[in-house]
Design brief:
Strand content of chain A: under 5%
Distance between the termini of chain A: 34 Å
Largest interface: A-B, 38 and 34 residues
Distance between the termini of chain B: 14 Å
Largest sheet of chain A: none
Strand content of chain B: 5-15%
Radius of gyration of chain A: 17 Å
Oligomer: heterodimer
Radius of gyration of chain B: 26 Å
Largest sheet of chain B: 7 strands, antiparallel
Structural class of chain B: alpha+beta
Helix content of chain B: 40-55%
Number of helices of chain B: 13
Helix content of chain A: 55-70%
Order of helices and strands of chain B: HHHEEEHHHHHHEEEEHHHH
Number of helices of chain A: 2
Structural class of chain A: mainly alpha
Order of helices and strands of chain A: HH
Shape of chain B: elongated
Number of strands of chain B: 7
Number of strands of chain A: 0
């Protein structure tokens, strides 16, 4: 099993973004809060994209 | 991973999840309104605010504030006094029949007029109080807290075992694949995997800090019995303080001992955060760190002189730093909204996980996990 193979690329990026998001708001206000919202916002957006999107219906394909 | 390992981790994931799922659902659902605690209390009209006065109106003597409160509630004694940086015109007071009374009363006073403000509803009103107790202690005090802490530990086990199983169950799929063309069970398995891995680190942090929070009472007891006891050894055996020294003067003395800090919380003699002979004064600074990590100062409640000041021990510092990471209240409205969305995503992970177990079917259950992994991927 490749530990840092393709399977783990996205989860590691998301994990790092989450840590940046959680820690930066703790460090300070203003810019730090904005960075936090951006980093965690990406994580939430990725979850929403894959969790909520529906496949386009094609002819002959089941929806 | 070998088939036997997949089977073992599946067993761990199944049971740690199954045992904790009902409580995790409860925690996620009650946690949602708690993220917006302040806003909901405000909207329900359960918030008490000090009336507007011209800027620069001087503050009253704190001793007058205390005298007013005790006059309004005869027979009660002071337990705690605190002020929130966000609401500088309000003193929060807690009074009770004795310093260790469980039947305490939270009061609010105007810091400028030394007049009592209307009594706030206990714990933000009936609804928020219900959410709070279902989230924190299930109305069972320390035992409820420790029980939920154990459920938190099981959640951490479920998360780690879930990560281990993530690879064998998704290795042939591109990241984020949800196979809509397949059966609902496959669809929900994919959804469980995607949302589980997206929310993983957030859930680990919120789960771990939540578990640490359940130990708060125990950690305080440790501190009382070790460092606090050590600091107050010279006072052991002395008769209780009869006349309390001026609080106004004690605050001024404490501020001198902690330059650049202001008092946030005062525990009166005999309460959990003080000694029978001292005010426990907790000083807060302005920096992101010192605004969360107070410096405790013990002030002799008879003479008003500083007995000692020390930094918080590491385990209390860890507790206090872990609290914002659990509450999500430290980055403004954007962070709160993201906290709520991640909470909802976690609810979906819990429900899809439960569904996968319920719909495992006889044929599926008979198959070993490594075979299901092969089929799923």
């Amino acid at each position: 099993m490749q530990i840092f193979g393709p399977i783990w690329t996205a989860p590691i990026v998301l994990g790092v973004l989450t840590i940046v998001g959680l820690v930066s708001a703790l460090v300070g206000d203003g810019v730090w809060d904005a960075l936090s919202a951006l980093a965690l916002g990406i994580v939430v957006a990725v979850g929403a994209w894959y969790g909520l999107r529906r496949p386009k219906k094609r002819h002959g394909a089941r929806g | 991973m070998t088939p036997i390992n997949i089977r073992r981790w599946s067993w761990v994931h199944k049971w740690s999840s199954l045992v904790s799922t009902a409580f995790m659902l409860l925690l996620c659902i009650t946690g949602l309104p708690l993220i917006y605690h302040h806003e909901i209390v405000h909207a329900l009209g359960n918030e008490v605010e000090a009336p507007a006065m011209p800027a620069g109106t001087p503050r009253a003597n704190v001793d007058d504030v205390i005298a007013t409160a005790l006059a309004a509630y005869p027979g009660k004694v002071m337990m705690y006094l605190s002020q929130d940086k966000e609401e500088p015109h309000v003193w929060a007071l807690t009074v009770g029949d004795s310093p260790t009374s469980n039947d305490y009363k939270p009061l609010l006073a105007d810091a400028r007029t030394a007049q009592m403000l209307p009594e706030p509803p206990l714990e933000g009103g009936k609804f928020m109080s219900l959410m709070f107790h279902l989230h924190v202690d299930l109305y069972a005090g320390i035992y409820g807290k420790l029980f939920l802490g154990f459920m938190g530990l099981l959640l951490l086990v479920a998360l780690v075992s879930g990560v281990v199983l993530y690879a064998p169950f998704t290795r042939k799929l591109a990241f984020g694949t949800v196979r809509h063309e397949r059966s609902r069970r496959v669809r929900w398995l994919d959804l469980h995997n995607v949302l589980g891995i997206v929310t993983l680190v957030w859930a680990l942090v919120v789960g771990a800090t939540g578990m640490i929070n359940t130990w708060a009472d125990l950690l305080l007891k440790v501190w009382q019995n070790t460092e606090l006891a050590e600091m107050t050894k010279p006072y052991a055996g002395l008769p209780p303080v009869t006349t309390l020294a001026s609080m106004q003067a004690a605050i001024a003395t404490a501020k001198q001992a902690a330059p650049g800090m202001d008092v946030g919380f005062v525990a009166f003699p005999g309460t959990a955060f003080a000694t029978p002979h001292h005010y426990g004064m907790f000083m807060y600074g302005d920096s992101p760190l010192t605004s969360r990590l107070p410096k405790p100062i013990l002030v002799d409640a008879q003479t008003g002189a500083v007995t000692s000041s020390a930094d918080l021990p590491w385990y209390l510092a860890a507790l206090l730093v872990s609290q914002p990471l659990h509450f999500g209240d430290y980055g403004g409205q954007a962070l709160k909204l993201l906290w709520a969305l991640l909470d909802i995503a976690t609810i979906v992970v819990l429900i899809t996980g439960l569904y996968l177990w319920i719909k495992r079917g006889k044929a599926q259950a008979a198959k070993p996990a490594e075979q299901r992994a092969t089929e799923a991927a």
